[in-house]
Write a structure and sequence with these properties.
Receptor-like kinase; alpha+beta; globular; 28% helix; disordered C terminus; 265 residues; two-stranded antiparallel sheet
Length: 265
């Protein structure tokens, strides 16, 4: 199916993803899970959760394989890959395409609809616990689909509070209550927090924090933007404001908008 795993699409925390083709010519993404991680729980999570779904903004699981210690998941193929390569500086140059604000807005709306479906539209509520740009896949029309349910948790729709033995998720996107119960109880709202952080990343247009980062605090968007403020660096949204609008903002001291910061003042 994968031509001996010849074409690798990416590498996740639980295994590699390879491009494959079914006998009918349908292209697929084949996720080969590591045998040394998760003790099979991530495989159970994905099959149990995603097999219950059917939504335009949730990736489709076409099949799976469980043979001995081999665990494989087969998904629909997403030709445009994951969202992160279209929102970080440098990555957009490599991909050869930078998405406009209207397209980013549509992607954000689509992800929100998919998340609402997981929380409210399924017979059993599905909490994803790892919403981030890397887990949002884009089809040929850049329609977003939520993927990677290895950390997902199922719970009854009427149950608002979720019990968890340990924190799960990715630094920078984890809701405070997930890793410290002093902040409150874990619920589906923890996914909403992660979604909000992801939207901030989509409009932030910073360098990819996962490429050779040496300080884990750099992964957290509020830390990054506050550091820029302390250093007196500019923060603006590329292409969101025209040069004429920028000039008007700089001239109007009462506009309520801060375009530039100056550390000398």
């Amino acid at each position: 199916m994968t031509n001996s795993f010849k074409d690798k699409l990416g590498q996740g925390g639980y295994g590699g993803v390879y491009k494959g083709k079914l006998s009918d010519g349908c292209l697929v993404a084949v996720k080969l899970l590591n045998t040394s991680k998760g003790n099979g729980q991530e495989f159970i999570n994905e099959v149990a959760s995603i097999s219950k779904t059917s939504h335009v903004n949730v990736v489709s699981l076409l099949g799976y394989c469980l043979e001995g210690d081999k665990r494989v998941l087969i998904y629909e193929f997403m030709p445009n890959g994951s969202l992160e390569k279209f929102i970080y500086k440098g990555d957009t140059l490599k991909s050869g395409q930078q998405l406009g604000w209207e397209k980013l807005y549509q992607i954000a709306i689509g992800i929100g609809r998919g998340l609402e479906y997981l929380h409210r539209g399924c017979s059993t509520r599905i909490l994803h616990f790892d919403i981030k740009p890397h887990n949002i896949l884009l089809d040929e029309d850049f329609c977003p689909k939520i993927a990677d349910f290895g950390l997902a948790k199922l719970c009854p729709k009427k149950q608002s509070i979720v019990s968890m033995q340990e924190a799960r998720g990715t630094i920078g996107y984890i809701a405070p209550e997930v890793f410290n119960r002093n902040f409150g109880n874990v619920s589906h709202k923890s996914d909403v927090y992660s979604y909000g952080m992801m939207v901030l990343e989509m409009v932030g247009c910073r360098e990819n924090p996962y490429a050779g980062v040496c300080n884990t605090s750099d992964l957290y968007f509020p830390h990054w933007i506050y550091k820029r403020f302390e250093e007196g660096k500019e923060f603006e949204l590329p292409s969101a404001v025209t040069s004429e609008e920028k000039g008007n903002c700089e001239e109007d001291d009462h506009s309520g908008l801060v375009v530039y910061t100056d550390s000398s003042n």
